[in-house]
Write a structure and sequence with these properties.
The protein has 5 helices and no strands. By secondary structure, the protein is an all-alpha fold. Helix 2 packs across helix 3.
Length: 127
């Protein structure tokens, strides 16, 4: 019941309303297009109609209007929701195995195939 009640709440004031200053709205829009909707997962919060995306848009616009920089807002959202919220992942040491694993697998495959072809050519040469 409590979850169903949350969907009945009115949207946040800046969820669907733009800021009055076009320069600030452009900053907010630029940031919102780089943030992922956590409910939709395939849309930015600028494109999503999910209530959670509306709340995130409201937070972004409110903080931009208060003078906060977009990167500070992104950092706050990443701290709050995790790295997944940003389409531009941060380069952290824990990410290196993800980039190195495909190279290691390709190297192992090349070594295995090389050994297999060597055995095949040695047995053909001895016959």
């Amino acid at each position: 019941m409590p979850l169903a009640a949350q969907d009945q709440l009115p949207p946040a004031p800046y969820a669907y309303r733009q800021l009055d200053d076009p320069a600030l709205e452009a900053k907010a829009q630029g940031l919102m297009e780089t943030l992922r909707c956590l409910k939709c997962q395939s849309q930015s919060i600028a494109d999503s109609d999910a209530p959670m995306a509306g709340d995130m848009r409201h937070q972004v616009r409110t903080r931009i209007a208060a003078g906060e920089q977009p990167e500070a807002i992104r950092a706050w959202l990443i701290e709050r929701y995790g790295d997944y919220v940003s389409y531009a992942p941060q380069n952290k040491p824990i990410m290196w195995p993800l980039f190195a694993a495909p190279l290691v697998i390709l190297l192992l495959a090349a070594l295995l195939l090389r050994g297999r072809f060597r055995k095949g050519s040695k047995s053909e040469a001895s016959e």
